[in-house]
Amino acid sequence: MKITLVNPNSSRAVTEAMVAIARSVAPGVTVQGVTIPDAPPTILNPDALDAAAIRVAALAPSLAGAVIVAGFGDPGLMELRAAGLSHATGLAEASIAEAAALAPRFAVVTTTPQLVGRIDLAAQRASHDGYAGTWVTPGDPQQLMSDASALTDALLAACQRACAEAERDGALGAIIIGGGPLAVAARTISADAPVPLIEPVPAAVRRLLATAHTDGIPG
Fold first, then answer.
1. Which domain holds residue 39?
2. Helix (H) or strand (E) holding 214
3. What is the domain count for the chain?
4. Does 104 share its domain with 189?
5. Contact 6, 83 (CB under 8 A)
6. Which residue among 5, 60, 170, 197 is least packed, with the fewest CB closer than 10 Å?
7. How far apart are alpha carbons 219 and 204 in whole angstroms?
8. pTM for this prediction
9. What 3-state DSSP class applies to 45?
10. CB neighbourhood size of 61 (10 A)
11. What is the pLDDT of residues 98-132, one digit of tens each?
């Protein structure tokens, strides 16, 4: 089985980090990464997400088998499926499904405040009533993501805040760390988080492996 991980931003370092995480989840699976060079280094708002969808969709003729759209807004995922790539998933789709299966109530923690509305829509499309909302780290996302230590501290603090603020409507049972570029930080803080963390890249790999087990995926 082969998985192609498509990073909708232009950071090769982020692509390599996500590919390494995907390979660690499925050691017997070939995982290759694709970076879109003319994309922005980070997707920060709905306009950038929509532009990313066009770029990802344009890759459809060159893709085959299993595909992960490795941006949390799943840009271009529906277009890839419409082009015949039925064994494709996105970070939001996979992690929301995994969180909903794990816990009655779950939340998302991310760094991009302008994308909260799109995250809400992704949860609504998935029809999971357990979605409690999205909590965002303070400050400038790009500046925060440039400092690994500050990023992990901010994400962990946001997880703790989400648990405390959501408590009045029922305890959270899981938190999704929402963002491809946050994959390494999510892994770093997982042992210290107040509830189980859903890491989107491993969740996407597991979703594809489950699909391969039931349906088979052409290579």
1. 2-90+202-215
2. helix 200-215
3. 2
4. yes
5. no
6. 170
7. 17
8. 0.93
9. coil
10. 8
11. 999 999 999 999 999 999 999 999 998 887 789 99
